[in-house]
Amino acid sequence: MRFTFDVDRHIYRVDGQIKRSVSKIVTLDQDVDATRFYTEESRWRGSRVHRDTLELDLDSFDGSEFEEDALLVQSYKRWRDLVNPIWTSIEEARYSAIYDYCGAADRVGYDGMKRPLVADLKTGQPAKWHPLQLALYDLLHDDMPPRIRRRVCIYLQKDGTRAKGVEFKDPTDYDRALQLLRKAA
Q1: What is the Cα 141 distance to its own chain's centre?
Q2: Which residues of 148-185 are buried (b: 16+ CB within 10 A; e: fewer)?
Q3: Is residue 129 helix, strand or coil?
Q4: What are the CA-CA distances from residue 94 to residues 13, 25, 166, 181 (Å)?
Q5: 28: buried, middle or exposed (CB in 10 Å: 19+, 13-18, 0-12)?
Q6: What is 31-46 written as a DSSP string?
Q7: How many CB atoms are closer than 10 A to CB 26?
Q8: Could you read off the pLDDT of 53-101 as tens digits, one per residue?
Q9: What is the separation of C-alpha 176 from the centre of its chain, rounded to a whole number of angstroms?
Q10: Calpha distance 151→109 (Å, rounded)
Q11: CB-CB neighbours of 133 under 10 Å
């Protein structure tokens, strides 16, 4: 199997065939207004902040080129220093042969208490679709059954204060995710 991800166009391919992504599947949910959550501005800000937090986690961070980005990264760092996560996967593109879709969870690993965790960094406000997105990211990982990992959105704060980690525990998020996977097939 040959798996590729075109970062600029956000297109996943398996053996040359374009595959569904978590982003596209989430927009099938009736509660999601895709035009609100995925603007050009949010895409660029998110890309910059994800790059910076990746560098921070890899101990190669030299600073952000934009002041507002620096505060968001500082917010993440404060959360990270409190929670002490151990990341086993950072923005690693994956393909699920079981469900035939792709995605890249921002972070997968363990929290400071060694509990499995899948996390997504957010530069905006909480939205109804975030639990669904994390359930889809969790289903991409075949190394342990779904519902074992904690699903946490890390809401970065624009003023640099510690990010707010919000855990989603509703098991019906997985039911919604699986319904959308069937709908998207």
Answers
A1: 13
A2: ebbbbbbbbbeebebbebeebeeeebbebbeebbeeee
A3: coil
A4: 10, 15, 24, 16
A5: middle
A6: T--HHHH--HHHHHHH
A7: 24
A8: 999 999 999 888 888 899 999 999 999 999 999 999 999 999 999 999 9
A9: 17
A10: 11
A11: 26
CA 51 vs CA 9, 22, 117: distances in Å: 17, 20, 20
Q: Which residue has the tokens 């999601």?
A: 32
User: For residue 27, what pLDDT is reported?
Assistant: 85
Q: From residue 155, give the alpha-carbon distance in Å to each of 17, 145, 160, 163, 183.
A: 34, 26, 11, 5, 29
Token code pair at residue 134: 């994390």
Are 184 and 25 in contact by the 8 Å Cβ rule? The answer is yes
Tens of pLDDT, residues 138-166: 999 877 777 789 999 999 999 999 999 99
Reading the block at residue 14, the tokens are 């398996």
- Whether residue 10 is predicted with pLDDT greater than 70 in this model: the reply is yes
Tokens 């798996």, located at residue: 3
Query: Would you state the pLDDT for residue 2?
Result: 94
Which residue is it, tokens 């510690």?
Answer: 162
Classify the C-alpha dihedral 115-119-121-125 as positive or negative: negative
Separation CA 107–CA 121 (nearest Å): 8
Alpha-carbon gap, residue 181 to 134, rounded angstroms: 14
- Distance, in Å, from the CA atom of 81 to the CA atom of 132, rounded to the nearest integer, reads 27
